[in-house]
Amino acid sequence: MRRTRSTKTAGVTGALLLLGGCVDSAPLAGGDTTVLDRSSNAFDNPASNLNDEEFERHLEAELAFEATFVSRPSDVNPGLGPLYLNTSCAACHPGNGRGLPVVGHGPLESHLTVRIERDVPGPQGSPGGPGAPLRDHALPGWEAEATIDLTWVEEAGSYPDGTSWSLREPRVHVVFADGGELADDAMRTLRIPSPIVGLGLLEAISDETLQGLADPDDKDGDGISGRLNIVFDETLQRNVIGRVGWKAQEPSLFQNSASGFAATMGISNPVFPDEDGGVDIDEETVELAAFYMQTLAVPARADWDDPTVQRGEELFDEIGCSSCHVAELQTGDHEVEALRDQVIQPYTDLLLHDMGPRLADNAPDFGATGTEWRTRPLWGIGLTETVLGAAAYLHDGRARTREEAILWHGGEAAGAQSGFQGLPAEDRAALLRFLGSL
Q1: Which residue from 354, 367, 330 is spatially nearest to 242, judged by alpha carbons?
Q2: Among 164, 187, 192, 199, which is least packed by CB within 10 angstroms?
Q3: What mean pLDDT do residues 152-171 have?
Q4: Crossing angle for the helix pair 52-66 and 283-294, nearest 10 degrees?
């Protein structure tokens, strides 16, 4: 039985029943880190193969990830703001899942970030790319950078067999603190937070493996030209392969944590200090937040032995989805022992792919162009609504269902999208059922 705090054991028995069949034969999506949990707590478990020291550090790291920050002075978690989007890491990753396309002063505060072209990039920015997100919250006595309103535009269509569908696309109206409005033609990019399960395993995939998957010149002629994003590592002070983020713009979970603290909560740290070099939190706090993400378990797949799910997986491969969503990879070395040498099923190649003009945000990020996005890992995607009680897919949350997400695919994925549209309704349902089993 996996070690866990008693508060996180609820629902595990029911989760085992949901898996069906013999639990010992469940595909180990996260290798030895995998847990058999398909409940609303499915993303909340420590990796099942942590040693005693790693397990204790994971529990300590959880406190750092869930800590709610407040303004100075305070004896507990000071440093918030003065401008911010939300007040904790966990607030933007509810249940350790993806954030939702929400902005403003509702009960969730802001998950969605709106980045615009600025002269001076902020954390997570790069020369020529989007800077820090617009902070639409402020501490008392301060004024938020902007007020952001989000609306949706619907687009109707239908499959070749006549079945109708509807897609939505976001529109944001930005009014700055001085009353000025963001010009209609100004570059902007909208992004929701991603799920954080399995990120340590993706971080542990070797450079050599990623280089072997890359095919920037499409030498094999399959129309898929995945590229590496080469980004700057602030700790190493050199360029490395990017792995984390919507455009693989982050080199590591440590830097991702540091930029998250600074950009979304206004919390300075040793990686991204204040202009005068001061910091609100120390390096250990950043490391703990990163360690928490590194050591979360991946939930096992459900219904893997169901004939419909198996048919869906075959179709997933036949229409070309697996060209980018690579089913199986192996991790290499990593500072966390539990992540080393694991055979995993993340359904990603971690590479940049041109997804076409309809999904473009026209915002470059290091080597990533305005039309390129990193292939999203699909493990756990079938648990989105179970964990969140809602669903939002793609970089800006425009897709309300996995079906809508497929229909938005273009560029290098246009062939797979067209293949999906051309399937009989029964086969489309089988493919979606497969995705739901992940």
Answers
A1: 367
A2: 164
A3: 97
A4: 110
